[in-house]
Fold:
Amino acid sequence: MKMATIGAIYEEIDRLAPFDSCESFDNVGLLIGAPEIEVSRALLTLDVTLEAVQEAAEKGCPLMISHHPVIFHPLKSIPFGSVQGELLSRRIAVISAHTNMDKAHLNAALARKIGLLDFQPLPEDPCAGEGRLPEPMPLERVIGHLAEALSLQGLRAYDAGKPVRKVMLCCGGGGSMVHDAIRRGDDLLISGDFKHDQVIDAGNAGLSCIDAGHFETERHFLPLMRSLLAGEFPEVQFVEAGSCRPSFRYYTF
Structure:
């Protein structure tokens, strides 16, 4: 059987979630490596950490496919021992699919996972979308359902004190979507990385907010990408990184 190449996998991801649809601030695509390299195993991860690079090396993966870009800000140097330095020394390539993947698949997959109906990307900002719950329900019930669906250790929430039906959803860090949710008349915004002033504005406008965590609202990137690519590349084993886990732990007192 002919082996797949990094270039072929890149082209398939580009077909599924065009890289040129990413946000202007983003950096996606083949960020380290060469398209002609042959691949029989690839490691899927949310973030390219030193631990994930070590896992890729130990599992014989010449390619990592990440959600968050391994190069986001311009690099002025690549020190030995840095993530980028380790990737180069170990000859491990990285394809990153970030906001292009959010728009094409990640938000919609999360909406299905938590049971939102009629989910559609926002016309003005497809990095977020809206759907509705099957029936109006108190926020406490939504929290319980979300915690179970996403296997959460905990979450932060602001309850505006009214039933929830219309929901805006933004995978990852979407606290900046608060004013869009207010303007569009949503009852609830589910995302991660809310700032204090954003929640104050939400409260003044009667918008409930659930901060379910940046990692927790995006970790389904791994099984989703595996399911999207496995059928097209049966000769490649797509491995979900065991090192991909939350950085934060929740403490209660």
Q: What stands out?
A: The helical segments are 6-16, 50-58, 83-90, 99-114, 139-150, 178-183, 196-205, 221-230. Residues 99-114 form the longest helix (16 residues). The radius of gyration is 19 Å. Residues 160 and 206 are 5 Å apart (CA to CA).
